Structure formats: C-alpha cells, structure tokens
Amino acid sequence: MPLFHRYDPRSRADHPHGRRYHPGMPRVLFADDDPILHRLLEVNFRIEGITLESVGRGDAALERVVAAPPDALVLDSTMPGMDGHEVYRRLRAVPALAELPVIFLTGRSAHEFEEYVGTHVRIMTKPFDPTELVQVVREAMGEEG
Fold first, then answer.
1. Is 39 within 8 Å of 10 (Cβ atoms)?
2. What's the domain count of the chain?
3. Model pTM greater than 0.85?
4. Which of 4, 7, 71, 91 has the smallest count of CB within 10 Å of its CB?
5. Mind listing the pLDDT tens digit for each residue in 38-64?
6. Cα(84)–Cα(88) distance, rounded to whole angstroms?
7. Which CATH number is 133's domain given?
C-alpha cells in the first residue's frame, strides 16, 4: 500500500465540482472576489460541519444558486461585474428563492442595507471574525451553534 495517495477531484462522483460534499451536511455558497478569504472560510466552515462552495463573481453566484440552491448564501456587496446587491435583487425575483438566507459582507456602512430589513438578510461588516460568521450563518439557516 503506498504511503501517499494522490487526490484526483475528478474521481469524486458525489459532487460535481470535485469538492468534499457529504449528504446531510448544510451547504453554503460564498461569493467574494478575495481568494484568500475563500480558503480561510472553507477551513472554518468545514471544521463546523458545513460544506462551503465558493465563487468569485456575482454572475457565477447567481448561476450556481439558481442551478442548485444552497442552504444559505454569503455574499460580498462589492464584486467585479454584478455586485452583491444586483445578485440579491435577481434572486428575490425567483419565487422559490425568495426566502433563501443571505448574509451580506461589506466594508461600508450597514445603512446601505436598510431596504432589506426583514427579508431573510443579515449584515456583517469587514473585518469580521470567521467563527462569528459561521454562527451567523447557522442562525440564518435556523440551526443552533
């Protein structure tokens, strides 16, 4: 038996993107243009038993959510191309996605989100504590931490 096993993501038939996905685990989509943040949060969420999928653009987030709705969406408010606000507006226009929990990450004032109050939206300002984000996502999905 070899000491090292080469991981081949194409061999993972249980998930279309080659990531570790375990049925029954909550699945969260993270949309942000910072690849370092993607890796950091992937580890934090995995430790807490949540599968985190990542995209770097708003249009990719919209496509992914419509194709396979996650349990929650963590969305950066400012991304190149389609920003988080536009992704949010388009998602809310789809009746089946109207109650999808959305957690906005922003480096700006939370006042720009006042129109979303009471619409399954949470706001976190950057910088943020990754463990706090996991807790906010769990609460948004209706789970206890």
1. no
2. 1
3. no
4. 4
5. 999 999 999 999 999 999 999 999 999
6. 6
7. 3.40.50.2300
